[in-house]
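Anyone have tokens for SRCR domain-containing protein? Sequence:
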Amino acid sequence: MNPQTLPPRTINTVVEGEVRLVNGNSSCSGRVEIFHSGQWGTVLCDDLWDLNDASVVCRQLGCGSARSALQSAAFGEGSGPIWLDNVDCVGNESSITDCRHNGLGVHNCGHNEDASIICEGKFYSYFRYPPFPTADI
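Reply: yep, here.
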């Protein structure tokens, strides 16, 4: 095959501080994990975990509003490092790492306390589709 006709390669790169949801029934529900120092780890022991914290993660993922902030490893226990504990978001932060916390990797909990969320789902538009009919005036 001629190198000029090869299809472009897609490179998936993970960014420091990126979040994901694992073991949920959609991309907008599951156990919260964060990428730090080259590896994914469970993000949050559920100490202080509430809807303000879940709202930040849902927004960070583009998943709309938070419906639930779940505790006690509701979507299963993770493995690997526990990156955040005692997260305390106001709710307007752009990233979970912008919220108050003990410091990355500083925790006093186990994976049985991994935090999870359920978001409303992908946010597509402010408007309903199909559009409402309009009348000529």
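The radius of gyration is 19 Å.
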